[in-house]
Amino acid sequence: MKTKIYTLFLSALIAAGISSCYPDEEITAPVKTTPTSKDELENYIQENFIDEFGVAVRYRFVDRYVDPTKRVTPPHKDVVIPMLDFLSDYWIEPFLGVENGGQFFRDHVPAEIVFIGSSIFNEDGTVTLGTADAGARITLTEVNDIDITNQDWVFRQLGTIYHEFAHIMHQRYTLPPNFEQISPEGYTGAGSWYTLSDIEALERGFVSPYGTSSFNEDFAEVVAFLLYDPLFYEKYIIDETENCTSADCIARNEGRAKLRIKYNAILTHYKQNTGVDLLKVRALIQAKYQ
Amino acid sequence: MKNIIYLLPVFILLVTSCKDDDQKVFDKSADERVAEAKANLKNDLIANPWKMKYTPDETSGSFWVLLNFNDDNTVTIKSDLGANDGEFFEQTLTYRIDSSLGLELIFETYSFFSFLFELDDATFPAEYEFNYVNKTPDNALVFLSKSDVGVPTRLLFEEANAGDENLIGIDVAENLNTMANDLNKLTSSLRIAYEDKDLALYTGLDGTRRVLSISAVSRKSNSANVEDVNFTTGYLIQGDSLILNTAFSGKFFGQDITLKGLKFNTLVNGSIDICDDPINVHSYEATTSTNDDVLVETTLLDLSGANFVETTTFYFAPLEYIFDNGEYVGDEIMENVQGALEMQLYYNYSGGLYGIGFYIENPDGSVTFALREFTPQLDGNRIIFDFEPTISIFNSPTQANVENINIYLNALTEGDNTYIFRLNDGVYELHNPCTGWSVVFVRGN
User: Fold this and answer.
1) B364: Cβ–Cβ under 8 A, 6 or more apart, which residues?
2) Which of A3, A61, A127 is the closest to B106 by Cβ?
């Protein structure tokens, strides 16, 4: 009995010890409020990108968005709205303009778009034109050079956007079935793809040398080229038939045969998983060039 | 008894555990202290306008920069950097004070500082992010570059007064830019002719890096009488003057000269009449630091240009180095001469080949040299190409339309008005002022 009393007493003491040291606390932390901006650009971004799609647009330079070994410059403030209009015209509207495209875009659009004024200058003297991070952020470079009459610039930007947006597709739904088996011998690697020429890549069944660097890059490159390149079919899908007797021509057509398989697999993959017809998206994009 | 012994430590623990023995080293939280430090720096920045003599790199010259920070996180930056149609004479953008290892000042969008940072594929050691260091006893603010790889550039913000607006030399910068554009060359080509001395200095100015070079000194009355020099220094534009970091001095043709700077007066219009239409050029009246009156004038003479024949027998120019009135024409050349990768110049190569044309890579991997052979005639830094009538093909045959190389050779040599300018060791610009075409050749052997 004595033992029980002691045990009870001991328990009471411990309970008192645990609870007695807490003072009465009140949570008085102020609630943070963001005042409405008077800046036209900030309001434009808030209305058209944050509120509409949940996408933040980072145009003010923050160095943690860029690998510290690389050198970049920030964008001109004046180019931000024209750049956003360009994205609306060539990226958002074409997806929103097709059946199931609006839902697909809203569900898959990255949370952040980062604008870099210059190219990304690497330590080895090369430049990087655009990057994407795990489907959460797309970084666009050379926005200070915006000129939608400059076909090279337009294709470079669209190639980056569509390529990075395509990565989100395989991250969510994996690659199309057996995609890796279409041209398995053609892949190079992250450190050697740039030794190939465009023609050599085509002969292997790829739209670009960069596509040979991995299965995922191959997928993203085909989607990007399909969407932006007006000569996609002539270059990569339709066989050369006139005087195609040389070994080089035959090799190019063999590459195109592989690309046709990838092309069909990708169209089916998008249709089955998202309901989006990429050919209709392409048609809307190509109409913008007129 | 045993149980009492067990309870004793519990009692001691309870008695001592509620003692408030935390020692606060700081009277505020870390967040509060960071916020306070940022607010203090911002208060310092907005307290008054600042001036800074900005030297991005020890090999470059300097710029006077005026900065006026506002409470709404905007800053107005004034400079006399005349690039981008005067965009950087005065611009307003946003700034941010961040904290990382210390306080940082960041200019958030494109500015005077980022323009310099981007030079030479962003290898020029300018900066637009600064680490705050301290405030000096006389209230200047000290920053260090955040992005410099080696020894970081030190920046000193000093309190500016109303008179400091006169430090900015926009008129001088604009006039020197005008002269740099006189010939549609890549760099300016200037002659500084003394009024009261029979001397002329041959110079080039790099207005973005603020570097002046002097390549030769001649008698003003006879440019054939020349001494080569190799002098380069940074400079600063201050109001109506150009001040050299290092004075140029020496004895030339029996006359001692020292040049520490130039005070400019009036820009005068002129012309060079060697083409069908006169080329409008300018000259700038000035006074030297030793009170000599001089005329700084655009010139086609570059007395070191003709030295290219002594440097090597083979030069090459990648397509990126070929310009039509300053515009890149590489894409057009690749379209017209399929496989063309670079222009090449052979000058008495391998004991007697004189030829200029294109290096062509064919689809089968073979290489073709499509050249127009010529007999040269040098007149100072002017070269006249007396071409053979046909194009010579060396190495492998090609399917490229080699006749089209004449489009570009004619543009460069039309009217026998090709002038050679030395840009650097082993680097020469061949320029035709009548067509505006330029090719920058690099020593190849």
Assistant:
1) none
2) A61
d(CA A199, CA A178): 25
Tokens 């002038």 belong to which residue?
B419
**DSSP-derived secondary structure letter, A240:** P
* Chain A CB within 8 Å of residue B8 CB: no
Between helices B2-17 and A2-20, what is the axis angle to 10°?
A: 10
Q: Do A17 and B128 touch (CB under 8 A)?
A: no
User: What is residue B117's three-state secondary structure?
Assistant: helix
String of b and e for A244-278 (b: at least 16 CB within 10 Å)? eeeeeeeebbbbbebbbbbbebbbebbeeebebbb
Q: Which residues on neighbouring strands pair with residue B249, listed in sequence order?
A: B258
Q: What is the pLDDT of residues B11-44, one digit of tens each?
A: 565 555 555 555 666 778 888 889 999 999 999 9
| Mean pLDDT score of chain B | 92
What stretch of H or E contains B29? Answer: none
In sign, the C-alpha dihedral spanning B27, B29, B35, B41 is positive
How close A126 comes to chain B (CA, Å)?
10
Q: Which of helix, strand or coil describes residue B107?
A: strand
For residue B216, the number of C-alpha atoms closer than 13 Å in the C-beta half-sphere is: 26
Query: What tokens appear for A184 in the block?
Result: 């398995």
Taking only the tens place, the pLDDT of each residue in B365-408 is: 899 999 999 999 999 899 999 999 999 999 999 999 999 999 99
Helix, strand or coil, per DSSP, at residue B2: helix
Number of structural domains (chain A) is: 1
| Distance from C-alpha of B353 to C-alpha of B374, rounded to nearest angstrom | 9
| Structure token pair of residue B311 | 């440097």
Instruction: Point out which residues pair with B200 in neighbouring strands.
Output: B193, B218
- Count CB neighbours of A124 within 10 A: 6
Query: Which fold is adopted by the domain B30-165?
Result: Lipocalin (2.40.128)
- Measured in angstroms, the CA of A102 and the nearest CA of chain B are apart by 32
Predicted local distance difference test score (pLDDT) of residue A202: 97
Q: How far apart are CA B11 and CA A282, in angstroms?
A: 79
The correct CATH number of B305-443 out of 2.40.160, 3.40.50, 2.40.128, 1.25.40 is 2.40.128
pLDDT bucket at A34, cuts 50 / 70 / 90: low
- Determine, for residues B122 and A73 on separate chains, whether the beta-carbon distance falls below 8 Å: yes
Q: Which residue type, as a one-letter code, is found at position A237? A: I
Average pLDDT, chain A: 89
- Could you tell me the CATH number of the domain that includes residue A162? 3.40.390.70
pLDDT given at position B217: 94
Residue A49, token pair as written in the block: 């990108």
Residue in B240, B245, B250 with CA at minimum distance from that of residue B287: B240
Extended beta strands in chain A, E state: 56-58, 112-115, 120-121, 127-128, 130-133, 137-140
- Look up the ipTM and state it: 0.82
